[in-house]
Specification:
mainly beta; 3 helices; 21 strands
């Protein structure tokens, strides 16, 4: 029996170092984060007494690469974990996958594991414009392996490997209460008030899912509602510096159906919006989930924070709101209501997937004929 499983491989330009990872997506569970584990294959004759170090790096780019002139630099690299992979340390605890990879790859294969801290942002990419060149803004992670005497040595490109990975979050199993808000506005020199009630059918939505927005207007004033507009807004909060928050409308609809809402009358209606990347492909500045080669991405998921007071160390925080606006004409002004919601991917059944993988690997271990397919970056 031969059981196939996929591994990701990348070699140094000189071919003397090669790393293998069993996956490139690592899940942030808010309370804990998956470790980054893999295997290094090294040509010991090339090292000549030198060591091999590995690093887990979080790179945060907050400005365009083409604007880096006169010594300016709009990128910060955070070294989250550093480990000496070769010569190996005695306290390395290999996983089952690492043990089998080491057995298949031979005696020059060495396992490594990096611990990813809880207080770090998920992978995010800011969509560049058509005229933009260079690396896009956002947060990305990569594993770096290099040869040197110490971990602070200047590494050479020919003997260095960099393999991008992603830190992702999935939707929580428990959702919050149903979002609802009521806005009342009175007018100077006019009796009565205009009441706007906005309700969403739930707090948590999955990507490409329709959002039902229930709107109730009760007009006790002498103003007239002439038009209704609803929009989904994405907010990107760049916590590295003050004033780094901006909003983008990713889906909107305007309607005059049921209007005008005259004084003393009321209106109830439901509008639907679906925020998707396909409707915003050409828009610069939209936040997307971090993407790897050959992996399709989507609008950035909402950022889940274990402690909202620690948002400053998260680099970029993504949130979404539904905004409903009533237009009352040139003299009447506007009435606006906003409701936050969460937009994420559903959490896969990780236990079932791991159990299935474990059973497949056990069968392969028994037959000693485990194979693997390699995806080279």
């Amino acid at each position: 029996m031969v059981v196939q499983f996929k591994v990701f491989k990348k070699a140094a330009p000189n071919g003397k170092l090669t790393i293998y990872l069993g996956r490139r997506d690592f899940v942030d569970h808010v309370s804990s984060v998956d470790p980054v584990d893999g295997v290094l294959v090294v040509d010991q004759s090339y090292l000549q007494g030198r060591k091999v170090f590995g690093q887990l790096v979080c790179s945060f780019r907050y400005g365009r690469e083409e604007d880096e002139v006169m010594g300016l630099n709009f990128q910060k690299d955070l070294y989250l974990d550093t480990e000496q992979i070769y010569p190996p340390k005695d306290d390395v605890q290999a996983t089952k996958l690492q043990e089998r990879l080491v057995k298949k790859l031979g005696g020059e294969a060495y396992p490594f594991t990096f611990k990813m801290p809880q207080q770090a942002p998920p992978s995010i990419t800011i969509q560049p414009g058509k005229e933009d060149e260079g690396q896009p803004c956002g947060v990305e992670y990569y594993v770096k392996v290099f040869v040197g005497e110490t971990e602070e040595d200047r590494n050479h490109k020919r003997s260095t490997i960099q393999l991008n990975i992603r830190r992702i979050q999935f939707a929580p199993s428990k959702t919050g209460r149903q979002p609802c808000t009521v806005v009342r506005k009175d007018f100077m020199l006019s009796p009565g008030e205009l009441e706007l009630e906005v309700t969403l059918d739930k707090q948590l939505y999955y990507h490409t899912e329709k959002i039902d927005i229930s709107i109730a207007i009760r007009n006790h004033s002498n103003k007239t509602v002439k038009k209704i507009k609803a929009a989904v807004q994405q907010t990107v909060d760049i916590c590295l510096f003050s004033g780094g928050q901006y909003r983008s409308t990713v889906s909107s609809v305007e309607t005059q159906d049921g209007c005008p809402v005259a004084p003393g009358s009321s209106l109830e209606k439901v509008l639907q919006l679906t925020p998707t990347l396909s409707a915003n492909m050409d828009r610069r500045g939209i936040a997307l989930d971090g993407h790897l080669k050959n992996i399709h991405t989507n609008l950035a998921s909402s950022t889940l924070l274990a402690n909202p007071e620690n948002r400053d160390i998260f680099g970029m925080v993504i949130s979404y709101t539904v905004k409903v606006k009533l237009y009352l004409g040139a003299m009447g002004g506007e009435v606006t209501a906003e409701l936050p919601f969460v937009l994420m991917h559903p959490k896969p059944d990780l236990r079932r997937m791991m159990r299935a993988d474990s059973q497949a690997q056990i069968e392969a271990f028994r037959s000693e004929s485990m194979g693997y397919s390699v995806d080279q970056d």
